[in-house]
Design brief:
The complex is a heterodimer of chains A (276) and B (422).
Chain A lengths: L2 E5 L7 H7 L1 H18 L4 H22 L9 H28 L1 H6 L6 H27 L11 H25 L6 H11 L7 H8 L1 H7 L3 H12 L8 H33 L1
Chain B lengths: L3 E15 L10 H13 L3 H9 E15 L3 E5 L6 H8 L7 E7 L2 E4 L12 H11 L4 H15 L14 H13 L5 E5 L7 H16 L3 E5 L3 H7 L2 E6 L2 E7 H12 L6 E3 L13 E8 L5 E2 L4 E9 L6 E8 L5 E6 L15 E8 L7 E11 L3 E15 L29
Helix pairs in contact in B: 4-5, 4-6, 5-6, 6-7
The chains are: A mainly alpha (276), B alpha/beta (422).
Chain lengths: 276, 422
Amino acid sequence: MDELVIEAGKTERHYWADLWRYRELFFFLSWRDILVRYKQTVIGVLWAVIRPVLTTVVFTIIGGRLAKLPSDGLPYPVLVFAAMLPWQFFSSSLAEASNSLITNANMISKIYFPRLVIPASSVIVSFVDFLISAVILVALMAWYHVTPGWRLALLPLFTVLAFFASFGVSLWLAALNVKYRDFRYVIPFIVQFGLYISPVMFTSGVIRDKLGATFSQFYCLNPMVGVIDGFRWAVGGQADACLETNLLVSVAITVLLLLSGVQYFRATEKNFADII
Amino acid sequence: MSDYAIKVEGLGKKYLIKHQASGRRYVALRDVLAEKAKALFSNRKSETANHKSVEEFWALQDVSFEVKSGEAVGIIGRNGAGKSTLLKVLSRITEPTKGRVRLRGRVASLLEVGTGFHPELTGRENIYLNGAILGMHRTEIRSKFDEIVAFAEVERFLDTPVKRYSSGMYMRLAFAVAAHLEPEILVVDEVLAVGDASFQKKCLGKMQDVSKGGRTVLFVSHNMGAVTTLCRSGIWLQQGRVVKTGPARQLVDEYLTVNADTRQTVVDLSTIRRHGDQGRRLQIKKIEWLSGLPLQHGEKCSLRVHFHTRAEVHEVSTGIGFSTLEGTRLLSYDTDFQAGHRPDIAAGSACYVDVNLAELPLAPGFYNLSVGCRSGDAFGLDYLPEAMQVEVIMGPKTPGYIAVPGAGVRLKGDWNWNFGPS
């Protein structure tokens, strides 16, 4: 018979095996969150679509019409929406996941399971929204006769990158939010601020041209810069001059965020039940 | 090698209590940053100040015991003895600070029924979700689905969101899922404290089946009756340490006599387990037996209840109740019975109420006294289900035969003997 040994500081040993054992719980939690999300809101699925569409309309008017910014060979709405799609995924992941542990505090203090399951399932919920709004992108591309060609096949890769970037940051925020209760006031700010420092309304080229190379080096430390540039390129836009470097930096930062996020999460996880 | 299912060796769990943060419930980043900044400028001083404000508290200390496979063991002890902490460590919710636990077999812990239930989801959806949370596989839940539904008696409402369920239905469904778990080791905490009497009976029966089915059960309860019916042996915890282990019946008897502070006439209640608004506005501070203890059956006795208000409260009424140690309420007295007024009490004031019970009808034995107070008809200000234990002894006018355990309540009646056919 298998024997389980509980000792101070020894939980690490079973961690990844446990995570696998609790995959069904992960599935059910994601399923619950998705179900609840679309049951509670009257407009349901529409809500996932309305927000990015309206923001795209506004950004198209400001960026394309008023400021007349360059659009890398794409119609301006397609340019904005191709960025809005991963950005919306990223930002809603952060918002949902950072609160997820607090909203499930009851479960955490009553039942054992790898806590990683909770923020992970909220990222999945945002991912479902992402898939729904992806339909809008397809519709926009059809409307504006944008033919992406073979590059579209690489879109899943950029999606994976967006996924891990979201997950990495979410882990940090979720754990910090348990530890410091006033951290939740910081999160809406991060999300809002992030929208302005990511190339959603404009292209990465605009930043380099107007603000110089040094500034743009710091600018591309934001992991979403590489993701968004990748998305635009995959749907048929001109490749940004620094696409390769931006992508490499994004991948590196994402890996760093993910690894450190997992580590920090696991270090604080042990005390969640005591402090939540 | 012995055939243990649970083996606990030198287990300890330490918590740090921050006195400085006593005013706030959570650590705030703002304060941490402020502390760090202060420490930068005066690096020595604040460090020593910090150390003073943190106090170590051992919720469990050097706890060792062994539970044989297939055995049902009850854990007893007063509030704060470390029972819940022990269960939390055993179910891996929190890590021990010291020592080791060995568990043989699949463990399921039931520290609460209905964990993870979502009000928006239907009964059917919640069964699957809750099952998964308790560690059941999908196929397992599917194969037991009909049984669970039948046990909970909710067939007609399976596709209704549980937020529309009555609280009884909700509890039945929640317990039904948990009851159909088939772990080798089951860890249970106070789940029987909820629901109505018939439901509690049903739960107890189910738990008995579980322990008879050869599975190991570890059971915490304040309900001594449940502990003795369910468990063969027991572990008695006090202030985080094991006082004694032994046969459940014997241990419970000993525990009850030792813990019955039945002769202390003034009892401070500020740290006791409470319900309702938990005394946040009006707190029951202490009770005082003016007529002395132990109480005498059939005699007069008087009690004073002291209150302290933290906020202004309106239309206050209060009452006391006597229950058997197994938890069945036998007697209730309240201020509302006597058509009086319900006073409003200003914030920050202390007050007390006296009550005289003319002829105490309780038969000799040990009883639990509960005290509560409410505002208006609905709002429970403070409720102490187990404020203290009281002993009732024979009074001068008590016939000897009444002194058997379980005689209950003996009241005066208007009796008339008649001789001859009616």
